[in-house]
Amino acid sequence: MEWKQIKNETDIVKLMDSLNYFHDSCITGLTYSSSTYVDETDLSMVMGTNPVVKLIIQRQADSLTTLEFCLEGVTHLCIHNDLNTSSEIQEANLYYKNGNFHWNVDDEMASFKCKKVSWREIQKK
User: Fold this and answer.
1) Distance between CA atoms of 64 and 17, rounded to whole angstroms?
2) How many angstroms separate the CA atoms of 93 and 125, rounded?
3) What is this structure's pTM?
4) pLDDT value of residue 107
5) Structurally, how many domains does the chain consist of?
6) What is the pLDDT of residue 124?
7) Average pLDDT value over all residues in the chain
């Protein structure tokens, strides 16, 4: 599936409505790339300026059951993983403020802040 970029409040509302505010969802995986690396010629550290997180979310729903989010320019990422409690998302909020997208799960289980958000549905094989 093609990536769909979230560009404005209308895109946010449409996505959140179609996902029922992430109700009955869970984070099943993520990858992180800092974009920082060591230059092989002089072994200097090259600081990255575009950290990227890819987040996989599954939903208990008849449609849009598995989603991948690509978060670019990530400045905050927090995942609380308490093995004694459910990691089920009851509700999450996505909003745009001061040039950043913010996503917060209602019980502070997870949150992020980034410059750009894209998403796509992952089809079952």
Assistant:
1) 12
2) 30
3) 0.89
4) 73
5) 1
6) 72
7) 93
Instruction: Of 33, 88, 82, give the one whose Cα is nearest residue 55.
Output: 33
Q: What's phi and psi for 21, nearest 5 deg?
A: 55, 35
The ranges of the chain with pLDDT < 70 are 125
Domain hosting residue 68, numbered range: 4-121
At residue 5, the pLDDT reads 97
Distance CA 24, CA 35 (A): 33
- 3 CB contacts (<8 Å, ≥6 apart)? 70, 118, 119, 120
Cβ-Cβ contacts under 8 Å for 54 (sequence gap 6 or more): 30, 31, 68, 69, 70, 71
Distance CA 14, CA 78 (A): 25
